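User: Please fill in residues for this 266-position structure.
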């Protein structure tokens, strides 16, 4: 059992955290060694409703890392907390897998530097869904042949940022493949502001927010007499877990920070 990856999850009571707890507990070769929460210090997770695990809850990440000495931290909390947890993990010899987005450039640079100095892998994964990563990669491939593209991303109405991180990342990846282009009619005018969506180097991006949605995106490429649509739907948070598992394995073999799951799959 010495080869088991010892994992700590921060944010276990959250929607993503609950799925990640199940994942780690059910995956051979992984062990849920402890969790980090902001409540219930030194209780067992099984003291809380809906959990069976005897993993101990810590409110202090330092105490958790120095006592438990895990291999990997999976953080599914908030951007501010995710950054602090990642930094504390790296300073204590633990490899972070961070599922929150919204880090500043300075914070990212700092984590990159800490990762390198400590020769410890870090993965920051704005989207864990492998299908969504492939959608971005396929879109980048298609952009070589279709220069007119619009992105429609659709999320639940509790989402605070628009466009989504995945939508933005898709546009950036497409930008790497195609020359800048002003799309649509050169004289087009919006009679309702925002109707043509956001503009990223000419790529139009539209954000739909509705109850009932989870995370969905279509990338539409238009060409002479043809339309190519690349589409991905996350129907529930289980869709993110194969990516979490992949990241836990991959971070063990990294010595630096990797931003984006697309950079660890072929
Ligand atoms: P959620 O249900 O609100 O869960 C967040 C959890 O984090 C809550 O249990 C919260 O505790 C806990 N938390 C907040 N601050 C904390 C702190 N200082 N220390 C310890 N725990 C803390 O949200 P979710 O839907 O699970 O999403 C969690 C994060 O993952 C979000 O940042 C979201 O954007 C991100 N996410 C990433 C992906 C991806 O593919 N990368 C996919 C979906 C979501 P309280 O209940 O006490 O507030």
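Assistant: Residues filled in for all 266 positions:
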């Amino acid at each position: 059992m010495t080869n088991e990856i010892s994992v700590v999850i921060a944010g276990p009571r959250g929607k993503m955290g609950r799925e990640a707890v199940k994942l780690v507990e059910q995956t051979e070769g992984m062990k849920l060694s402890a969790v980090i929460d902001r409540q219930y210090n030194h209780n067992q997770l099984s003291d809380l409703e809906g959990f069976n695990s005897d993993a101990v809850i810590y409110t202090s990440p330092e105490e958790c890392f120095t006592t438990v000495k895990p291999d990997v931290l999976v953080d599914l909390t908030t951007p501010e907390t995710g950054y602090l947890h990642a930094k504390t993990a790296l300073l204590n010899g633990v490899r972070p897998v961070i599922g929150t987005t919204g880090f500043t450039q300075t914070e990212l640079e700092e984590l990159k530097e800490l990762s390198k100095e400590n020769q410890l892998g870090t993965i920051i994964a704005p989207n864990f869904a492998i299908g969504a990563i492939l959608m971005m990669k396929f879109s980048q491939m298609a952009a070589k042949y279709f220069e007119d593209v619009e992105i429609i991303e659709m999320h639940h109405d509790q989402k605070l940022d628009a466009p989504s991180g995945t939508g933005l990342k898709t546009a950036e990846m497409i930008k790497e493949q195609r020359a800048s282009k002003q799309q649509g009619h050169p004289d087009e005018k919006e009679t309702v502001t925002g109707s043509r969506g956001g503009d990223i180097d000419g790529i139009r991006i539209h954000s739909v927010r509705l109850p009932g949605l989870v995370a969905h995106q279509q990338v539409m490429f238009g060409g002479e007499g043809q339309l190519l649509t690349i589409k991905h739907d996350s129907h529930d948070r289980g869709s993110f877990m194969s990516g979490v598992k992949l990241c836990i394995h991959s971070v063990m073999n990294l010595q630096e920070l990797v931003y984006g799951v697309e950079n660890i799959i072929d």
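For context: The longest strand covers residues 215-223.
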